[in-house]
Structures are given as structure tokens and as C-alpha cells.
Write a structure and sequence with these properties.
mainly alpha
């Protein structure tokens, strides 16, 4: 496994070559956690998890406000109750078409927005086409 710095976790525990073989030392969990805590990937992972949980809470709140059970929502969406439960637990990231079907089943409108980040993008990231000059793009499920 590679880290943000390009090192591998396994390389952390390797000693220098001695004699005919390699000696390894055990890496403690505390060392691994400290090594991983510094990474940008970890921060992004927490942000994505937070987004999934926020979306899950919003869907559950709408479902409950409409007086629907998970099973009833699943029937309207064309999926299973267990899929709705996983979604509401924040364990899956649904596709836009799935979110659009959920919005329709809940009598809501799906709106997805992109906001410009306050920091410049990573120059090592792959180049993508830029959006509108305003820096804010929205997609609505009915378009």
C-alpha cells in the first residue's frame, strides 16, 4: 500500500539488507496510524464520508416527513428495503439516476451543485475541462 509520500507501509518496517536475507521489524498500529494521519487522502476520505452521511440524513428526514417506511420508499424507487437501509446508514454512494428516482419517490427535487474550493487545485491532479466562468455549476434531475 502506498502513502501520500510515495512510501509503502511495508517499507516502514524493513531493516537494511543483512547477510543473505532481509530482516523485518514489526510496525505498531500507533506508528501506522501516525503515518497515515498526515495524508491528504485521509482528509478527503473523511470529507467524502461526511458527505455520504449528510445525504443519508437528508433522505431519511424526507422519508420520515412523508410518513413512509423504508420498504414503501424502496417499492416506489424500484429497489429493496435493505438497499434503502444501507443508503440511509451512509454505507453506499448512490448514482445520480438513483438519487433522481429517490427524489421523485419523495416528491422532492434533486439539485447537485459544485462550489469552487478556497485553495488552488493540486497541480499534479489530472487536468479537467473548466466549468462556467462563475465557478458554480448546478444540475437538476429534471433537466
Amino acid at each position: 500500500m502506498k502513502t501520500d509520500r510515495g512510501d509503502s507501509i511495508a517499507a516502514m518496517g524493513r531493516d537494511r539488507r543483512e547477510g543473505a536475507g532481509f530482516r523485518t521489524k514489526k510496525t505498531s498500529w500507533v506508528e501506522i496510524k501516525a503515518f497515515r494521519a498526515e495524508g491528504e487522502r485521509r482528509r478527503r476520505g473523511y470529507e467524502k464520508a461526511g458527505q455520504a452521511i449528510g445525504l443519508a440524513r437528508e433522505i431519511r428526514g424526507l422519508r420520515e416527513a412523508r410518513g413512509l417506511s423504508q420498504r414503501e420508499l424502496a417499492e416506489r424507487v424500484g429497489t429493496t428495503q435493505s438497499a434503502i437501509a444501507r443508503l440511509e446508514a451512509g454505507n453506499i454512494s448512490p448514482s445520480l439516476p438513483t438519487l433522481d428516482r429517490i427524489a421523485e419517490a419523495l416528491g422532492a427535487e434533486l439539485t447537485v451543485t459544485f462550489s469552487v474550493l478556497p485553495r488552488p487545485p493540486d497541480p499534479r491532479a489530472p487536468s479537467r475541462r473548466s466549468g462556467p466562468a462563475s465557478g458554480h455549476t448546478a444540475w437538476r434531475g429534471d433537466e
